[in-house]
């Protein structure tokens, strides 16, 4: 607007002085001035379409200020030098031109106080002096008028500018306030979504992110292998917590968080979703091979020993993965399946990675069938016991029989205990089952010679669930079998789950007079150190060490050290799963005497126990070697 007003007004003045003034004043000078104004006008129009940086804006405004001064001087000088050429009309035009144009320009520069004041000073002061000194009363009156108007305008300008700057300042403040509010709410969001101990995203964030990531994938054309989720569980963490205290456990978790955080990439994120459970999301690289490699890397990170100021510890991690959409399409489904894979890893590949596969799907379906049948099963009729001898190779006699459950379902046929016992544990049928089995086992044992012991498997839940132990004790006392003939077998998982409760339970069984065997020793995480702190009488070394005993030096070393430690701690030691005579001989060389396995007899029904083993002594079948 400013340059347009200048150009138009200047052209009209040039027009009224055409032929009156010399050509350099009437044509060239205004032409030059108008060209300059046009150039500036074009520049401003072009700038309107660009976003300028703060620095550039400040620089341009400063240029404008001194340019206003220069332009003011040039136009005033030009107009005044035309004054002497014309008559009264053209002179009035000059005065009018200067007064009106400067007022218009000051209005246009309202937001630039310095420029507006400069312009007012540069034009109005010479104007007033110039026309006041013409001795023409009309021009003198005009000079006074214009001067007064200019003063008022400057005052209005100053008030206006003050309001304008305070408006800008309040805007700036408001924006700062808004930024502070935003910062606080960001911080709040961060804290609400962050795990305090490990600084990793927490459970809430993990699930929210997962929902967010799944939403665009669901329903649309399938993009296999685009997203996988994983759950990680630290094996042996609960034991560390129990043994060394929560403060130490926290340090271990912090360190674990750091190790996982080091594995985070744009494709892989890790969150802490529970006590010692971590969640993973993997985008892009979700082929089986890639997930297994990632699992290995994460497991390896955890297996490095933890050296902390408070002490040292060792851990391992098991990981279960579920792939979208193969394993499920919703967050719930995927998480459930990842957990299934994790439990599978813990049961079969401790310290390893398992990816949920179609076979798992079949297994889940089979398990739910087993569960349904077990719920409606008549334990009394369908579930029986087989007995397997535990043989003392030193004394050449049977020390005990282990009771092993057998289920013949009218729907499913024969179901292995390794299948239905975990199901019974999960759906809380185990207590009723244990009660029936214990009664049957003790019934059978009543007919055996007094010297032969009965070994009975208890489930972890029989020890850890309040009230369950009572049923075991009641059944034992009601059986008529002397409690000191009974060995209760428990696996170390029972101890790991709740060390304190397990200890109390074991002590009350011991008080009855029964003895305690630690089953499947060597497959889990018990150190003999923790065994030592529990009232245990016997250790049963897992059969997996026996398979390679003749060839594998490590298996030998492990068995040998367990046998020796048992001796030192005054514990009896039974080796399970002995199938060949060569194995038995190798074990004897390592110092083991008490063994169990197919070599000494397979599990047989209660009715055949006396026939097969007691009346027909083993010694004759095995020879005296
Ligand atoms: P476990 O307590 O370790 O029982 C030993 C398992 O090894 C038995 O399997 C037995 O049949 C098998 N076995 C014995 N000798 C040999 C051998 O020389 N070679 C091989 N390869 N295997 C041998 P089973 O009867 O299938 O039982 C599996 C598991 O189910 C048991 O492992 C135990 O953990 C659980 N279980 C069995 N009966 C009961 C029960 O009444 N209550 C509870 N809570 N668990 C039970
Ligand atoms: Ca057992
Ligand atoms: Ca065992």
TrEMBL record:
Transmembrane residue ranges: 20-43, 64-83, 89-109, 114-132, 138-161
CDD domains documented for this protein: EAL, GGDEF
Swiss-Prot/TrEMBL keywords: Membrane, Transmembrane, Transmembrane helix
Entries under SMART domains matching the protein: EAL, GGDEF
Keyword Cell division: no
Domain GGDEF residue range list: 225-358
Limits of the EAL domain: 367-617
Stored InterPro entries: Biofilm_reg_signaling (IPR052155), EAL_dom (IPR001633), EAL_sf (IPR035919), GGDEF_dom (IPR000160), Nucleotide_cyclase (IPR029787), Rev_trsase/Diguanyl_cyclase (IPR043128)
The keyword Magnesium belongs to this UniProt entry's keyword annotation: no
Protein origin, superkingdom: Bacteria
NCBIfam families the UniProt entry points to: GGDEF
PANTHER family named in the record: BIOFILM ARCHITECTURE MAINTENANCE PROTEIN MBAA, DIGUANYLATE CYCLASE DGCP
Protein known as: EAL domain-containing protein
Organism classification: Bacteria, Pseudomonadati, Pseudomonadota, Betaproteobacteria, Burkholderiales
């Amino acid at each position: 607007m400013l340059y347009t007003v200048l150009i138009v007004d200047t052209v009209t003045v040039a027009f009224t002085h055409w032929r009156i003034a010399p050509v350099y004043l009437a044509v060239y000078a205004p032409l030059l001035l108008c060209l300059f104004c046009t150039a500036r006008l074009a520049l401003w129009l072009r700038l309107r379409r660009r976003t300028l940086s703060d620095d550039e804006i400040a620089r341009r405004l400063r240029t404008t200020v001194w340019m206003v001064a220069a332009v003011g001087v040039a136009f005033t000088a030009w107009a005044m030098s035309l004054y002497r050429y014309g008559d009264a009309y053209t002179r009035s035009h000059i005065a009018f031109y200067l007064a009106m144009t400067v007022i218009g320009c000051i209005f246009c520069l309202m937001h630039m106080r310095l420029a507006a004041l400069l312009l007012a000073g540069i034009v109005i002061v010479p104007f007033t002096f110039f026309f006041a000194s013409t001795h023409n009363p009309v021009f003198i009156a005009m000079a006074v008028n214009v001067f007064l108007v200019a003063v008022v305008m400057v005052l209005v300008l100053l008030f206006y500018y003050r309001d304008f700057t305070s408006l800008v300042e309040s805007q700036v403040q408001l924006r700062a306030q808004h930024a502070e509010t935003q910062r606080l709410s960001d911080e709040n969001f961060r804290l609400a979504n962050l795990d305090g101990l490990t600084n990793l995203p927490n459970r809430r964030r993990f699930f929210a992110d997962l929902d967010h990531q799944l939403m665009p994938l669901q329903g649309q054309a399938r993009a296999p292998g685009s997203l996988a989720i994983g759950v990680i569980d630290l094996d042996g963490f609960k034991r560390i917590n129990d043994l060394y205290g929560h403060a130490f456990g926290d340090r271990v978790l912090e360190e674990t968080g750091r190790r996982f955080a080091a594995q985070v990439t744009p494709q892989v994120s890790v969150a802490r979703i529970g006590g010692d459970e971590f969640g993973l999301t993997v985008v892009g690289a979700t082929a089986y091979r890639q997930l297994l490699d990632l699992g290995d890397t994460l497991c390896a990170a955890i297996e490095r020993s933890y050296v902390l100021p408070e002490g040292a510890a060792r851990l391992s991690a098991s990981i279960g993965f579920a792939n979208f959409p193969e394993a499920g399409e919703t967050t719930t489904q995927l998480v459930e399946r990842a957990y299934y894979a994790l439990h599978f890893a813990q049961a079969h590949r401790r310290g390893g990675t398992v990816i949920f596969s179609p076979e798992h799907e079949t297994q889940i379906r089979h398990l739910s069938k087993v569960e349904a049948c077990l719920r409606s099963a008549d334990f009394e009729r369908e579930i029986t016991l087989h007995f397997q001898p535990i043989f003392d190779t030193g004394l050449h006699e049977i020390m005990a029989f282990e009771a092993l459950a057998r289920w013949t379902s009218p729907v499913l046929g024969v179901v292995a205990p390794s299948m239905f016992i975990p199901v019974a544990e999960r759906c809380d049928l185990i207590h009723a089952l244990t009660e029936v089995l214990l009664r049957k086992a003790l019934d059978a044992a009543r007919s055996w010679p007094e010297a032969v012991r009965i070994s009975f498997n208890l489930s972890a839940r029989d020890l850890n669930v309040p009230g369950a132990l009572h049923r075991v004790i009641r059944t034992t006392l009601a059986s008529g079998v002397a409690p000191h003939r009974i060995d209760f077998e428990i696996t170390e998982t029972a101890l790991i789950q709740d060390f304190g409760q397990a200890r109390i339970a074991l002590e009350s069984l011991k008080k009855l007079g029964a003895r305690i065997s630690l089953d499947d020793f060597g497959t889990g995480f018990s150190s003999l150190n923790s065994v030592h702190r529990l009232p245990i009488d016997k250790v049963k070394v897992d059969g997996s060490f026996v398979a390679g005993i003749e060839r594998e030096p490590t298996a030998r070393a492990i068995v040998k050290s367990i046998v020796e430690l048992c001796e030192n701690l005054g514990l009896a030691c039974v080796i399970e799963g002995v199938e060949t005579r060569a194995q038995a001989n190798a074990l004897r060389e390592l110092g083991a005497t008490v063994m169990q396995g197919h070599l000494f007899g397979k599990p047989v029904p209660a009715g055949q126990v006396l026939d097969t083993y007691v009346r027909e002594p083993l010694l004759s079948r095995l020879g005296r070697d």
